[in-house]
Specification:
ten-stranded mixed sheet
């Protein structure tokens, strides 16, 4: 009897081990089945900046092949500018709902109660990484490392002032780029793919070109330098030809880098288990050929918001598929989730819908819908056939892409229906835009070591001015009086000691100037003992007309000291206690590191 009991126990143990083994194998199998996802987002590239869309002056063979081997959404729409589109891609929700109302100085931040696609994928076993222009918040937990991305390399601001070995960051720590920025970002993405090839990965690759400043290596620009551009924008009298040539050269560089990604995926035999998505964040950043559509970046007209959208998944999505149904950036999160076999549990309801039924050609019950395009008080609505512009004019987009003829009278019923939809968006969505942004800049989150506090987010007082009207890559200068100061509204998340490194320039005659930092009752100060006075740079690499963005300098790190910060909100103040030679430092940023 005892022997029988022992045998039974042994048999049951074997059954249990077998069951657990099957569960583990099933789990590993399911994990292995999850598709890798590569999402490539370009910056200010128009729908017309691709040879596949009819541009006769540019050659984009790799992106064209991506389209030939995959599906193209022929009527895909984004926001008129950068940060709202990024918010919609990342959250699957209309950007006003997520707190995004500006492109700089804090207004680009996605609210912390939003769930991102990286949050979803990471919690479902994906390795996640972002390489490039984030533009959705800088200080943790707004930082990409706080929004589901385990790895981040790039910059968090809305634009950058130098594309050749610039100052960047890696997981919050300041570093120096290696070569032309798009090539560098692609190198880092390929390294990550190589490292994570055995497990499902999500690579978000938000390139920052062809956004100005118009910088591109000679090898790409030479082709365009002396050619005559015959295809012109819809407002040809406003087109700057040098700007157009530089933009097309930058797009050909993007294409080359997309080809490098494709080649690596093929070399690793990952093509059948990798989804590659390609799109732009808004219309072209200049008047150039864009398929005769009205509007450029910043406009809610067709040309300002129509983006290429290519999705390739070998042997899963039919090669050469062309889909005319309208879709939007809010649809990417639910689409990716469905293809990853994930139910996207989010803190807030999604506004987008999965376009997988269209891609899988199972769209018998696909319902008609509207796409909304909003920016700075201007709201435009797109149906499958019509566009109702921000002035409530109606255009037939099938016959009139340049929006030349108002057809409101001929199609009064359609206009009435679209006006009702517009009223819905105004009452239900735009009312969620913050009237006053009460979100402070965070310092010292318990889960993160570094906090960057840049000039971009500061307020200048007294004589101090910005190096440029656009804050993103600017610095503060003209600091001439001890009453001058720079301030930030901050929230210290965790009490403790923080080492502060300040990035500055200072002329020889101003050495001896003393800089102080104050928060509440705590205060540190340090005297500048070393001159560092480099020239402005950037202009030597710019193409075309003078840039709109700030020129940059090589700012030197300087240990300001260790400061105790108590948890709570208040004003962080940077001052000069003593100024030598009539001028204090030029200031770029401070880095706080938790001790």
């Amino acid at each position: 009897m005892t022997l029988f009991i022992r045998f039974s126990e042994y048999f049951l143990l074997l059954l249990a081990i077998h069951w657990l083994s099957c569960q583990v194998k099933e789990s590993i199998s399911k994990e292995a089945e999850k598709p890798n996802i590569i999402l490539i987002l370009t910056d200010d590239q128009g729908w017309g900046d691709l040879s596949m869309n009819g541009n006769q002056h540019i050659s984009t063979p790799n992106i064209d092949k991506l389209a030939a081997d995959g599906a193209v959404m022929e009527n895909f729409y984004v926001s008129p500018v950068c940060s709202p589109t990024r918010a919609e891609i990342l959250t699957g929700r209309f950007s006003p709902r997520s707190g995004v109302y500006s492109t700089s100085a804090g207004g680009e931040r996605i609210d912390l109660d939003e769930t991102t696609i990286a949050d979803i994928l990471k919690s479902n076993g994906y390795a996640t990484a972002a390489f490039g222009k984030w533009h959705s918040g800088m200080q943790y937990p707004y930082h990409p490392n706080g929004r589901g991305f385990e790895e981040f390399y790039g910059f968090c601001s809305g634009h950058w002032g130098n594309y050749f070995s610039p100052m960047l960051e890696h997981n919050g720590n300041i570093t120096k780029g290696e070569g032309y920025i798009i090539d560098d970002l692609t190198d880092k993405a390929i390294d990550f793919i190589n490292e994570k090839k055995a497990s499902p990965f999500f690579v978000y690759l938000p390139y920052n070109t062809p956004h100005s400043p118009m910088q591109v290596p000679d090898k790409w620009y030479k082709k365009f330098e002396n050619i005559e551009i015959s295809q012109r924008g819809s407002e040809a009298d406003k087109e700057n030809m040098e700007h157009t040539k530089a933009a097309l050269a930058m797009c050909e560089n993007i294409d080359w880098n997309v080809g490098r990604i494709q080649s690596r995926i093929r070399e690793l035999n990952l093509e059948e288990n990798t989804i590659i998505i390609y799109l732009s964040d808004n219309g072209p950043n200049g008047h150039r050929w864009n398929g005769d559509m009205k509007g450029i970046k910043g406009s809610t007209d067709e040309g300002g918001v129509k983006s290429p959208l290519i999705i390739q998944w070998k042997n899963k999505i039919e090669a050469g598929l062309r889909i005319k149904k309208i879709a939007s950036s809010i649809d990417l999160l639910p689409t990716i989730s469905e293809y990853a076999s994930i139910t996207p549990f989010t803190n807030n309801p999604l506004d987008g819908k999965s376009i997988a039924p269209l891609l899988d050609q199972k769209n018998e019950n696909w319902s008609e819908r509207y796409v909304y395009n909003y920016w700075k008080g201007k709201l435009s609505i797109r149906s499958q056939r019509f566009r109702l512009d921000h002035q409530d004019q109606l255009f037939d987009m099938e016959t009139d892409p340049s929006q030349a003829t108002d057809v409101s009278i001929e199609y009064a019923t359609e206009k009435t229906e679209m006006m009702v939809a517009k009223e819905f968006y105004q009452n239900e969505v735009l009312t969620e835009l913050p009237k006053n942004d009460s979100r402070h800049f965070t310092i010292g989150h318990r889960d993160y070591k570094y906090t960057q506090i840049p000039a971009r987010d500061g307020t200048a007082h007294g004589n101090i001015i910005r190096s440029n009207r656009w804050p993103n890559c600017s610095f503060f200068t003209n600091w001439t009086d001890i009453e001058d100061r720079i301030s930030w509204k901050v929230s210290v998340e965790e009490s403790g000691d923080y080492d502060v490194v300040l990035y500055y320039t200072c002329a020889e005659e101003n050495v001896g100037t003393t800089i102080s930092l104050t928060f509440g009752d705590t205060h540190i100060s340090q005297t500048i003992k070393e001159a560092h006075d480099p020239l402005l740079t950037g202009m030597e690499n710019d193409r075309g007309e003078p840039r709109a963005e700030s020129f940059v300098k090589d700012f030197k790190p300087f240990k300001l000291g260790r400061i105790y910060l108590a948890q709570g909100s208040g004003e962080l103040i940077l001052k000069s206690e003593e100024i030598v030679g009539g001028k204090s430092i030029d200031f770029r940023l401070m880095m706080f590191e938790k001790v």
